[in-house]
Amino acid sequence: MELVLWLGLFLPLAGALLLFVCHNFISRRNTGIVGCSLVFFSFLCFVKLLYEYSQGIYLPEVTLFSWIQIKGFDADFSLHLDHLSLLMALIVTGVGFLIHLFSIGYMDHDEHFVRFFALLNFFIFSMLLLVLAAHLLVFFIGWEGVGVASYLLIGFWYERPAASKAAKKAFIVNRIGDLGLLLGILLTFHIFGTGNIHEICRRAPLEFTVGAPILAAIALLYFWGATGKSAQLPLQTWLPDAMEGPTPVSALIHAATMVTAGVYLVVRMNPIYTTAPAVLTLIGYVGAITSLYAAFSALSQKDLKRVLAFSTISQLGLMFLACGVGAFYAAMFHLTTHAFIKALLFLSAGNVVHMLSGETEMDKMGGLFQKLPKTAFLFLIGALALSGIAPLAAFFSKDLILEEASLTGYTTLYSVGLLVTVLTGFYLIRAYCLTFTGASRVDAKLWKNLHDAPSVMMIPVTILALLTLFGGLLGYASSVPPLLMSFLDKDSQAFFIKALAFGFHLTTDVWFSLAASIAGVGLAAFIYTNFRERLSRGKLAEFLYQSFYINQLYAFLIVRPLQFFSQLSSKIFEPKIFEGIIPVCTHVTNSTSRVLQELQSGQIRSYISWIVVGSAILLVYLVFEGFYA
Amino acid sequence: MTLYNPNLLTYFLLASSMDLSFYIFVSMALFAIGIIGVLSKRNALIMFLSIELMLNSVNLLFVAFSYSWGNSVGLVWVFFVLVLAAAEAAVGLAIIINLFRSKELVDVDQYNQLKG
Q1: What pTM was estimated for this model as a whole?
Q2: What is the ipTM of this complex?
Q3: Do A602 and B3 lie within an 8 Å CB cutoff?
């Protein structure tokens, strides 16, 4: 059983290495087979483990080898599979496999087909390492591996300046977050003397009183890391730009898996967070503000993928909001449903983009329902599901978050959540209307040959649509605890301290949230079917389109001063100051050595004289020392 | 602190019996002669002999102290020094022979190629 776990983890890595080594002579067909099947086998491994776990057979912590052994410090390369990481691993490999399958069709004409699959496999491996890690250092390797993979995949079309710029931006902004995580890890080592995640989680509530400042510092540093990876304010700017990568990459990295790493970190460390309630509240508010910010920004985007990117940020904000009110279970539930829905939305958007030969601007779409009816239908399912229309997946999870916020007394967070629900429905249906209904703005030549995507692309999207339709049932139960909750509750950690006794129950809150989503959806549908032609872009639209000018603000506050300083260094410091100082140093060294080299005369008798003089001085010194002592 | 006694020489000359001080005096004299020999002579063989003289002056001191204190540790050291001197003779003479072969000279001042 241990072997199954190792296989599950290392099969994607094996795939990445194999493809990397063979990239010169492997055929396209075999690349697709290797890339997809290894991830699928990895998925099967975790399904097998799921079966074992459902039988009540649990794996202990497994160690592959010991890294560093110093007294009082341990660094084992060890994994721990509990229900939380099993859930994450299933999402990563399952959704990841469907995206791999989709990529075969999507990347069909790309000449770097093999490199793409090698990187996708490497990404899956890093993410698995991250979720399965039992030790903070292993976790950090996975965390960084995900960062590297995202950098390489966003910049996959590196010939395009925008893509390589976006990749650099993603990497650098993530580094800022990683600094926080690294500091948090170091502080944890210092305080707890161990890096074992489960031991830390077990000891934190026992050894510290609620509100202990040092624990709050650790929690805050971890959250700093999470804001980078999960694109929360103030480190959210990289995610919309990351849409420069191929669409399957957006689906894989920026919707289903990578960005959830931050949420996973907070949920994983929840005993620390419940011991530091002030930080938890902060997380809730940061999540709420981010969610609102991203939802507003999404209202006015012109690029189909950027709408989805902002919606991802917004939904991640909701997950952090859930964590903030202590509803870790609700956050995980929303993470799960969001993974299905966002992958569905991205892949059906990918269909559109692929069929339009890479066009992502919604100004050049419209009326596509006539040509791509299946894709349009699948996209609509995703849009309605994420808007929170019953009984699709996100209705249950979003409603649970709102209910928890309301029940725990965070009225502000609750109302923000409701507003975000309205906005979510609005921007998603707006995107749907601009893309699929109305008059076509597609190039006439392209329009003639349009048809629905090949089945290798349609099948994964259809499976995701089914998951979207029925995924909500994981968290639905009227009297007993729902499936997902009882699954996660088996973990030894006291995970869901504040969670409600069961997930879904009909209160007035449900009607509120349902009404909110219907309002958003209906309003958008009404406006964009009847008044589309009369809509003009005002200043407000431009403000939202630029997402509150935060990029420009950062450019002004951080990038410009840095550039100014580097210019200053290269124009003044380097030529004037350093190039002036260095010759002085060499001159001093040279002249000193010229004087001293006279001593090395080659005359053996002069050396002996120096020895005698030196010995005499030493002797006199020793005698006098003895004399005065 | 007899080293600083201005009447050191008189003291030794007037000493009625051959006590320890006399041996120390002879040893120091031999050592000084050795040093002067090494420093002033240019002939490699003479320098070599001077070094041997210095070693033997130390040997004399060892034996004298050993006798005076009734302790055999000094005698053991003498054998070490003898072995060292033998080894030095073997190596040193070999070097001198090789030097002579290269330039047909034993004047050390002529061998000054290794200067800075």
Answers
A1: 0.76
A2: 0.76
A3: no
For residue A595, give every residue at least 6 positions away whose Cβ sits within 8 Å of its Cβ, in sequence order, or none: none
Residues of B whose CB is below 8 A from A612: 35, 39
At residue B87, the pLDDT reads 94
Of the candidates A599, A603, A612, the beta carbon closest to that of B112 is on A603
| CA Rg value for chain B | 18
Q: From the CA of B72, how many Å to the nearest CA of chain A?
A: 26
Mutate to test the interface with B, among A590, A603, A625 (most CBs of B within 10 A): A603
- Quick one: tokens of A567? 């210019």
A317: helix, strand or coil? helix
Q: Does A597 touch chain B (CB under 8 A)?
A: yes
Q: Answer for the pair B51, B89: CB distance below 8 angstroms, yes or no.
A: no
User: What domains are there in chain B, each with its CATH number?
Assistant: 6-110 (1.10.287.3510)
pLDDT at residue number A533: 61
pLDDT tens for residues A161-203? Answer: 888 888 888 898 889 999 999 999 999 988 888 888 888 888 8
Chain B residues 78-107 with CB within 8 Å of chain A: none
Q: Residue A147 has which token pair?
A: 């960062």
Percent of chain A exceeding pLDDT 70 equals 94
Distances (CA, A) of A226 to A13, A316, A571: 25, 11, 38
Count how many residues are written for chain A: 629
pLDDT of residue B10: 56
Cis peptide bond prior to A391, omega within 30° of 0 = yes
If DSSP codes are grouped into helix, strand and coil, which group holds residue A290?
helix
For A445-501, the DSSP string reads HHHHT--PPPHHHHHHHHHHHHHHHHGGGGG--SSSPPHHHHHHTTSSS---TT--S
Contact residues, A window 444-473, toward B, CB-based 8 Å cutoff: none
**Segment holding A62, helix H or strand E:** strand A62-70
Cα–Cα distance between A40 and A17 in angstroms, integer? 17
Q: Which residue of B has its CA nearest to A598?
A: B116
* A208 and A275 Cβ atoms separated by less than 8 Å: yes
DSSP code string of B64-87: HHHHHHT-SHHHHHHHHHHHHHHH
Write out chain B residues lying below 8 Å of A598, CB-based: 116
Indicate yes or no: CB of A609 within 8 angstroms of CB of B112: no
pLDDT higher than 60, residue B5: no
Nearest by CB to residue B116, choosing from A597, A605, A612, is A597
pLDDT digits (tens, 9 = 90+) for B38-73: 989 889 899 999 999 999 999 999 999 888 888 888
